[in-house]
């Protein structure tokens, strides 16, 4: 055993497991690379079974078995499958946003895809709320968590801040249909608003949030667009 392994193994196993259990998956994986001893500790089923249960609770119930082994391998396999699935959403957004913006209807279609694939909050957090992605994809992940999963706003904001994308801004543009007033038709009104992802999560601009809701009127859905401020097509890669 080399000096590094000796130093790490001097920590009692129960303490080492407690340290490892407090880490997020990326940090747990990084810790496992430190030494052979930590690789064995960080691959323990007692660490990975709760992670599977937390991220895919329904799937966990179908495979739960006291004799099941290699929860780490199961987690990695499922994560890779989700990464493949989310690529279809990335491709959809990439195809629809070549003019540096996306229509609301296309945004809602992407959200429906995530719902069909049964993405959970952790899936979105790890695969869509990432700083290297286009802000449109960040926005779609945010709206999915808000409108479909009904994740509390403070948890979404925490995820946005941890990924350092809370301050990213998008511009929402829409037309408010005109109305009839004493026999006269008042023309449609154009609206445009810039808002950060964090402000959307906190519902600080209710009018903009209403435009982005699934229950938005047909007139809004067919006229509204979202564009990224400081848009860069190079950020569309997953």
Automatic annotation (TrEMBL):
Protein name per its UniProtKB record: F-box domain-containing protein
SMART domains: FBOX (SM00256)
Pfam families with a match to the protein in the record: F-box-like
InterPro entries reported in the protein's UniProt record: F-box-like_dom_sf, F-box_dom, FBXO4
Organism name: Hibiscus sabdariffa (roselle)
Boundaries of every F-box domain copy: 5-51
